[in-house]
Amino acid sequence: MSSRTVIRGGLVITASDEIHADVLIEDGRIAALAATGTPAAEAFGAERVIDATGKYVIPGGVDAHTHMELPFGGTFASDTFETGTRAAAWGGTTTIVDFAVQSVGHTLREGLDTWHAKAEGNCAIDYAFHMIVSDVNDETLKEMDLLIEEGVTSFKQFMAYPGVFYSDDGQILRAMQRSAENGGLIMMHAENGIAIDVLVEQALARGETDPRYHGEVRKALLEAEATHRAIRLAQVAGAPLYVVHVSAMEAVAELARARDEGLNVFGETCPQYLFLSTDNLAEPDFEGAKYVCSTPLRPKEHQAKLWQGLRTNDLQVVSTDHCPFCFVGQKELGRGDFSKIPNGLPGVENRMDLLHQAVVDGHISRRRWIEIACATPARMFGLYPKKGTIAPGADADVVIYDPHAEQVMSAETHHMNVDYSAYEGRRTTGRVETVLSRGEPVITERAYTGHAGHGVYTPRSTCQYLN
Questions:
Q1: Which secondary structure element, helix H or strand E, spans residue 401, and what is its range?
Q2: Whether 100 contacts 131, CB under 8 Å
Q3: Cα–Cα distance measured from residue 282 to residue 304, given in angstroms and rounded to the nearest whole number
Q4: What's the rounded Cα separation, in Å, for the pair 56 and 51?
Q5: Residue 107's CB: how many other CB atoms inside 10 A?
Q6: 191 FRET partner, CA 20 to 30 A, in 47, 321, 347, 451?
Q7: Residue 403, preceding bond cis, omega within 30 degrees?
């Protein structure tokens, strides 16, 4: 038995078009778009009709940077794949790409199998994986080829966190050389972790222990220096590079310069860097710990350069780096020593709404909103046009979005498994009303109608921006 749905009367917005159209869905995929009011929708004979009059009809968001159940600093990210993907759906995101972790001394395969076991049967929406490479050796390099064949086509390395995830320049170069051969994409956490550790030690010795010092020791220049170094190593290797969670204007300048030189270099930023700042890190009574993440929040003047980078396409993607830790019992591990505060913010539920607020505020256009939140992440990580657009043949991952509804972001009302909101009290215009994942309603008129296990693992092709 085939199942058919029609979404009627809405404004369909993709990265390339805005069109008043009815969306015809059959067996979990987009069957056709028909001009509103034409007989096509009637003739389709749908069992389910959704009225989207006065609403936007947009592709489900693709969040290409999440960390569900990530072990970090002696604790675990507080969202499971079940709670995290449910919250993502509430926020209009229908695909996440999470990071499987290779631990030092273990294989990529062991890390990937562990993450498959965490996610399988638990997700409300579809998911895919990147691979964190913590231990570059001859076996690891061979395994990279095998993972690409399985649809894990991107590999993250860290210039930060010595003793945990850190890779030195030689290890980075070897992985980049391998990705130049096998078509993989290296994702880089670009901060000079060796230098930062010196500054951390010196700050603590001076008695500077509050959360705000987390931002002061992780200097913008050390993000820019690492970004520059990563770009040049990728250039030597002849490999593409994707720099994650760019927060500093000096790092944006390095990316812009490389792209002007014609290099295959890409950049991602996150809502926390666009909407929050060091003012939050400096909140009294240890409240600043809620905002500790790496790269850190920057002074407000960096925000304008990040928005500019998104408009000029020197930054291409907005992901969340969703990595929540509860304030009580987790962030508090760093009382008296900022270096022990688990690094990460909750945000998977807030991204689409915050970026719509950016449309309302005039930072970006509606189509650019869809481009940076849906289409480009799907293309960057080999999911397009299955994900990231509304077009015949695409998965019916569709959001009915009310652009006029107002909401106040709060831990009282969000669905992430964390005891605070990084955006507590923030008023935004625009709200998710209904969400379909492969044609099945996950959110129906502001009620959760999905279930754990609906979401399936989605293998990816290689980056679609490369020749």
A1: strand 398-408
A2: yes
A3: 20
A4: 11
A5: 15
A6: 347
A7: no
| Distance of alpha carbon 373 from alpha carbon 353, whole angstroms | 11
> In terms of DSSP bridges, do strands 29-35 and 154-158 run parallel, antiparallel, or are they unpaired?
unpaired
- Can you tell me the distance from the alpha carbon of 417 to that of 221, in angstroms, rounded to the nearest whole number? 34
Q: How far apart are CA 355 and CA 311, in angstroms?
A: 13
* Predicted local confidence at residue 1, as pLDDT: 62
Q: Which two tokens stand for residue 394?
A: 């695409």
Residue 133's Cβ-side half-sphere holds a number of Cα atoms within 13 Å equal to 31
What are the tens digits of pLDDT across the range 397-449? 999 999 999 999 999 999 999 999 999 999 999 999 999 999 999 999 999 99
Q: Which amino acid is at 351?
A: R
- Distance, CA of 353 to CA of 344 (rounded, Å): 20
Tell me the C-alpha distance between 352 and 320, whole Å. 10
How many whole angstroms separate alpha carbon 85 and alpha carbon 456? 11
Tell me the C-alpha distance between 87 and 322, whole Å: 11
User: Which uninterrupted H or E stretch holds 157?
Assistant: strand 154-158
SS3 content of the chain, % helix, strand, coil (to 5): 35, 25, 40
Q: Considering the entire predicted model, what is its pTM?
A: 0.98
Cβ contact 166:137 at 8 Å: no
| Cα 354 to Cα 369: distance, rounded to the nearest angstrom | 10
Torsion angles phi and psi, residue 95, rounded to 5: -145, 135
Q: CA-CA distance, 294 to 88, in Å (whole number)?
A: 21
Q: Calculate the alpha carbon distances from 14 to 32, 59, 361, 366, 467 in Å.
A: 14, 7, 20, 9, 24
Whether the CB-CB separation of 347 and 92 falls below 8 Å is answered with no
